[in-house]
Amino acid sequence: MQKMKDLILENGTYLGSGILKVDSFINHQVDPSFMMACGEEFARLFSSVNATRILTAEISGIAPAITTGLAMDIPVVFARKSKPVTMPDQVYLTIAPSHTKGINVELIVSPEYLGEGERVLIIDDFLASGSTIMGLVRLIKAAGATLVGIGALIEKDFEGGRELLSPLGVLIESLACITHMDEHGIVLKD
Amino acid sequence: MQKMKDLILENGTYLGSGILKVDSFINHQVDPSFMMACGEEFARLFSSVNATRILTAEISGIAPAITTGLAMDIPVVFARKSKPVTMPDQVYLTIAPSHTKGINVELIVSPEYLGEGERVLIIDDFLASGSTIMGLVRLIKAAGATLVGIGALIEKDFEGGRELLSPLGVLIESLACITHMDEHGIVLKD
């Protein structure tokens, strides 16, 4: 998606240690019209998978998940990272290491909103090491639902996420793919 | 907004201690089309305030903020509750007590995305005690920006939030207002 590539090159900042700052359009400030265009692009890319539900991880996955859900007209569930008092005692819970935070993060979904028979499309902001997304996949399996696709706004090609997730045998799409980044700049796949 | 009232009465659950569970349509699962209708309603209610920016608090505020931003065609900033590595050292930070979590929560905004001259509309999921929203108001003032309105999906009339915020002198709107709730049921304002 050309606009995503342009925004990364114009406004993305490499902070070292594999960290890309995209706070101005994904992780802190969001242009809703651009995010809607991303949702429409995901809806186009995943038009053949017959998804009935979108799963994302709070926090920065929520905006693209909502706009994709709007474009596809299906519900969105966001996995929580701490268990709210409103959740039942029995939940699906898994642990995923967070590269950017350097800690393990819990991902929690209530069985009320993820069940057998659902065809689940995962939408998240980044596909990097794939560990967060693999955590969401475990929640989908625990619920007896079916994973039908994985979409990320930005992929970091060099962190191995696609290799980790490819054996799942579903369509994996990103709107921009970074092949290299260092203090000299960011290189995107054509 | 009639649909919000219907959803609260049909799917909201009172859990005691002033806690309303609305996980099926706000805090864990979201119907994007309904959330878009909420955004359009906020856009209508706040059409006269000339907002240039929406501010919300992560996590459950993000969905209504995005759809409101989409309807009004203005950017959304979500205050973070922990400082990501991508934020600069100097930030606007305030502390707000969380009623539902029983702890103090940090609300953090980068000066990069909230500045003087901005006319800021606050959108959040709940208006209860008003403490989170008042925290967002402090961030707006710290940035030298102007608060122009406050919108919440659900108001709890009996927790005093409106009384706390009214002296700010801006338009305060909620899409449904709960006047009473206990183990026997939920009562909404007409």
Q: Structural class of the secondary elements of chain A? A: alpha/beta
Total count of strands of chain A: 11
Largest sheet of chain A: 6 strands, mixed
**Unreliable runs of chain A, pLDDT <50, ≥5 residues?**
none
Characterize the quaternary organization of these chains. Answer: homodimer
Q: First CA to last CA of chain A: what distance?
A: 10 Å
* Number of helices in the DSSP assignment of chain A: 6
Element-level helix/strand string of chain A: HEEHEHEHEEEEHEHEE
How is this structure best described in words?
The structure is a homodimer of 190-residue chains. Chain A has six helices and eleven strands. Chain A is of the alpha/beta class and 190 residues long. In chain A, α3 (32-45) packs across α4 (62-72). The radius of gyration of chain A is 16 Å and the shape is globular. The N and C termini of chain A lie close together (10 Å). β3 of chain A pairs antiparallel with β5 (76-79) of chain B, so a sheet runs across the interface.
